[in-house]
Amino acid sequence: MKLFGCLRSPLFGSTGGFRVSLDRVGDEPIGMVATYCPSAPQSQGLVIRDVTADEGSAILRWNQRHPKRQVRPGLAILEVNGCCSTAEMLREVKDSNCLELLLCEHLTPLQSEILSSSRRRSKAIAAVEAVIQEIEVDTEVTEQCAICYEDLTMQVIQLPCGHCFHKSCATKWLASCKAHQRCPLCNQKLEIYT
After folding, report:
1. How many CB atoms lie within 10 A of CB 127?
2. Are residues 15 and 105 in the same domain?
3. How confident is the model at residue 1 (pLDDT cuts 50, 70, 90)?
4. pTM over the 0.85 mark
5. What is the CATH number of the domain that holds 160?
6. What kind and span of H or E run contains 51?
7. Do 154 and 75 share a structural domain?
8. Are residue 134 and residue 106 in the same domain, yes or no?
9. pLDDT tens digits for 12-53?
10. Of 76, 72, 74, nearest to 59 (Cα)?
11. SS3 135
12. Backbone angles phi, psi at 174, to 5 degrees
Protein backbone atom coordinates (compact mmCIF):
# COMPACT_ATOMS: atom_id res chain seq x y z
CA MET A 1 0.00 0.00 0.00
CA LYS A 2 1.27 3.40 -0.96
CA LEU A 3 0.49 6.29 1.37
CA PHE A 4 1.39 9.84 0.59
CA GLY A 5 1.93 12.60 3.11
CA CYS A 6 -0.79 15.00 4.16
CA LEU A 7 -0.84 17.97 1.90
CA ARG A 8 -2.34 21.26 2.91
CA SER A 9 -4.80 22.27 0.30
CA PRO A 10 -4.30 25.79 -1.07
CA LEU A 11 -8.09 25.99 -1.06
CA PHE A 12 -8.16 25.87 2.74
CA GLY A 13 -4.85 27.40 3.77
CA SER A 14 -4.96 27.65 7.55
CA THR A 15 -8.60 26.59 7.97
CA GLY A 16 -7.72 22.97 8.68
CA GLY A 17 -8.16 21.30 5.29
CA PHE A 18 -5.83 18.49 4.29
CA ARG A 19 -5.59 15.64 1.80
CA VAL A 20 -5.38 11.94 2.57
CA SER A 21 -4.42 9.23 0.07
CA LEU A 22 -5.65 5.72 0.78
CA ASP A 23 -5.05 2.51 -1.14
CA ARG A 24 -7.48 -0.29 -0.41
CA VAL A 25 -6.38 -3.82 -1.19
CA GLY A 26 -9.17 -6.01 -2.60
CA ASP A 27 -12.30 -6.02 -0.47
CA GLU A 28 -10.68 -4.75 2.72
CA PRO A 29 -12.70 -2.13 4.60
CA ILE A 30 -11.88 1.54 4.36
CA GLY A 31 -12.42 1.84 8.11
CA MET A 32 -14.98 4.60 8.50
CA VAL A 33 -18.68 5.30 8.67
CA ALA A 34 -19.67 8.50 6.88
CA THR A 35 -23.03 10.20 6.93
CA TYR A 36 -24.85 12.76 4.82
CA CYS A 37 -28.29 14.29 4.37
CA PRO A 38 -29.93 13.32 1.06
CA SER A 39 -31.97 16.54 1.03
CA ALA A 40 -29.00 18.82 1.79
CA PRO A 41 -27.14 20.66 -0.96
CA GLN A 42 -24.71 18.36 -2.77
CA SER A 43 -21.86 20.67 -1.78
CA GLN A 44 -22.22 19.71 1.92
CA GLY A 45 -20.26 16.53 1.27
CA LEU A 46 -19.96 13.66 3.70
CA VAL A 47 -19.19 13.79 7.41
CA ILE A 48 -17.16 11.08 9.15
CA ARG A 49 -19.32 9.74 12.00
CA ASP A 50 -17.03 6.91 13.15
CA VAL A 51 -13.63 5.48 12.42
CA THR A 52 -13.83 1.72 12.88
CA ALA A 53 -11.17 -0.49 14.39
CA ASP A 54 -11.19 -2.89 11.44
CA GLU A 55 -7.86 -4.69 11.40
CA GLY A 56 -6.00 -3.91 8.19
CA SER A 57 -8.27 -1.06 7.13
CA ALA A 58 -6.86 1.66 4.91
CA ILE A 59 -7.65 4.38 7.49
CA LEU A 60 -6.04 2.42 10.33
CA ARG A 61 -2.83 2.20 8.28
CA TRP A 62 -3.02 5.91 7.43
CA ASN A 63 -3.55 6.88 11.07
CA GLN A 64 -0.62 4.74 12.24
CA ARG A 65 1.69 6.43 9.73
CA HIS A 66 0.35 9.97 10.18
CA PRO A 67 -0.31 10.57 13.89
CA LYS A 68 -0.54 14.36 13.43
CA ARG A 69 -3.06 14.17 10.56
CA GLN A 70 -5.35 11.35 11.56
CA VAL A 71 -8.69 10.61 9.95
CA ARG A 72 -11.16 10.92 12.82
CA PRO A 73 -14.86 11.39 13.53
CA GLY A 74 -16.15 14.90 12.94
CA LEU A 75 -14.18 15.65 9.78
CA ALA A 76 -15.98 16.67 6.60
CA ILE A 77 -15.11 14.92 3.34
CA LEU A 78 -15.38 17.60 0.68
CA GLU A 79 -13.89 15.68 -2.22
CA VAL A 80 -13.16 12.07 -3.19
CA ASN A 81 -10.92 11.50 -6.22
CA GLY A 82 -11.77 14.99 -7.50
CA CYS A 83 -15.54 14.46 -7.17
CA CYS A 84 -17.45 17.00 -5.09
CA SER A 85 -21.12 15.95 -5.25
CA THR A 86 -22.37 13.57 -2.60
CA ALA A 87 -23.56 10.97 -5.12
CA GLU A 88 -20.23 10.97 -6.98
CA MET A 89 -18.24 10.76 -3.73
CA LEU A 90 -20.30 7.79 -2.55
CA ARG A 91 -19.76 6.04 -5.89
CA GLU A 92 -16.00 6.64 -5.72
CA VAL A 93 -15.77 5.31 -2.14
CA LYS A 94 -17.72 2.20 -3.14
CA ASP A 95 -15.96 1.48 -6.46
CA SER A 96 -12.38 2.75 -6.17
CA ASN A 97 -9.42 1.12 -4.50
CA CYS A 98 -7.39 4.33 -4.64
CA LEU A 99 -8.98 7.19 -2.70
CA GLU A 100 -7.80 10.80 -2.56
CA LEU A 101 -9.85 12.53 0.13
CA LEU A 102 -10.01 16.25 0.81
CA LEU A 103 -10.91 16.58 4.48
CA CYS A 104 -11.84 19.66 6.48
CA GLU A 105 -11.70 20.04 10.24
CA HIS A 106 -14.28 22.83 10.42
CA LEU A 107 -17.88 21.78 9.88
CA THR A 108 -20.60 24.07 8.60
CA PRO A 109 -23.68 24.38 10.84
CA LEU A 110 -25.54 22.00 8.51
CA GLN A 111 -22.73 19.44 8.60
CA SER A 112 -22.67 19.67 12.41
CA GLU A 113 -26.42 19.00 12.52
CA ILE A 114 -26.05 16.05 10.09
CA LEU A 115 -23.35 14.57 12.35
CA SER A 116 -25.37 15.09 15.54
CA SER A 117 -28.51 13.62 13.98
CA SER A 118 -26.61 10.59 12.70
CA ARG A 119 -25.03 9.98 16.11
CA ARG A 120 -28.44 10.20 17.83
CA ARG A 121 -29.94 7.77 15.31
CA SER A 122 -27.02 5.35 15.66
CA LYS A 123 -27.38 5.43 19.45
CA ALA A 124 -31.15 4.82 19.19
CA ILE A 125 -30.63 1.87 16.81
CA ALA A 126 -28.04 0.32 19.15
CA ALA A 127 -30.47 0.67 22.07
CA VAL A 128 -33.26 -0.93 20.05
CA GLU A 129 -31.07 -3.83 18.93
CA ALA A 130 -30.22 -4.50 22.58
CA VAL A 131 -33.88 -5.34 23.39
CA ILE A 132 -34.95 -7.23 20.27
CA GLN A 133 -34.25 -10.90 19.79
CA GLU A 134 -33.70 -12.51 16.39
CA ILE A 135 -35.54 -15.80 16.00
CA GLU A 136 -35.67 -18.70 13.56
CA VAL A 137 -38.68 -18.69 11.27
CA ASP A 138 -40.92 -21.72 10.85
CA THR A 139 -41.15 -22.03 7.07
CA GLU A 140 -44.35 -24.06 7.37
CA VAL A 141 -46.24 -21.09 8.88
CA THR A 142 -46.58 -17.92 6.84
CA GLU A 143 -47.08 -14.82 8.94
CA GLN A 144 -46.88 -11.22 7.80
CA CYS A 145 -44.92 -8.36 9.28
CA ALA A 146 -47.50 -5.93 10.68
CA ILE A 147 -45.32 -2.97 9.65
CA CYS A 148 -44.61 -3.69 5.95
CA TYR A 149 -47.21 -6.46 5.34
CA GLU A 150 -44.61 -8.70 3.65
CA ASP A 151 -44.20 -12.36 4.60
CA LEU A 152 -41.89 -13.03 7.55
CA THR A 153 -39.29 -15.20 5.85
CA MET A 154 -35.90 -13.96 7.04
CA GLN A 155 -34.29 -11.70 9.63
CA VAL A 156 -37.25 -11.91 11.95
CA ILE A 157 -37.16 -10.53 15.48
CA GLN A 158 -39.42 -11.01 18.43
CA LEU A 159 -40.22 -8.20 20.84
CA PRO A 160 -40.50 -8.99 24.56
CA CYS A 161 -44.32 -9.06 24.17
CA GLY A 162 -43.98 -11.97 21.71
CA HIS A 163 -44.94 -10.19 18.47
CA CYS A 164 -42.69 -10.75 15.45
CA PHE A 165 -41.54 -8.33 12.72
CA HIS A 166 -38.76 -7.98 10.18
CA LYS A 167 -35.65 -6.79 11.97
CA SER A 168 -35.25 -3.75 9.71
CA CYS A 169 -38.94 -2.77 10.06
CA ALA A 170 -38.93 -3.03 13.86
CA THR A 171 -35.61 -1.22 14.18
CA LYS A 172 -36.82 1.69 12.01
CA TRP A 173 -40.12 1.86 13.89
CA LEU A 174 -38.65 1.72 17.39
CA ALA A 175 -35.70 4.04 16.70
CA SER A 176 -37.74 6.72 14.91
CA CYS A 177 -38.96 8.49 18.06
CA LYS A 178 -39.71 7.92 21.75
CA ALA A 179 -43.45 7.69 21.02
CA HIS A 180 -42.75 4.63 18.86
CA GLN A 181 -40.93 2.75 21.60
CA ARG A 182 -43.96 0.48 21.89
CA CYS A 183 -45.02 -2.65 20.07
CA PRO A 184 -46.92 -1.59 16.92
CA LEU A 185 -49.52 -4.32 17.57
CA CYS A 186 -50.27 -4.43 21.30
CA ASN A 187 -48.84 -1.03 22.33
CA GLN A 188 -46.71 -2.58 25.10
CA LYS A 189 -44.03 -0.09 26.16
CA LEU A 190 -40.48 -1.29 25.66
CA GLU A 191 -37.62 -0.38 27.96
CA ILE A 192 -35.27 1.23 25.47
CA TYR A 193 -32.62 3.51 26.93
CA THR A 194 -31.28 6.08 24.47
Report:
1. 17
2. yes
3. very low
4. no
5. 3.30.40.10
6. strand 46-51
7. no
8. no
9. 444 568 999 999 888 888 999 999 888 877 777 899 999 987
10. 72
11. strand
12. -75, -30
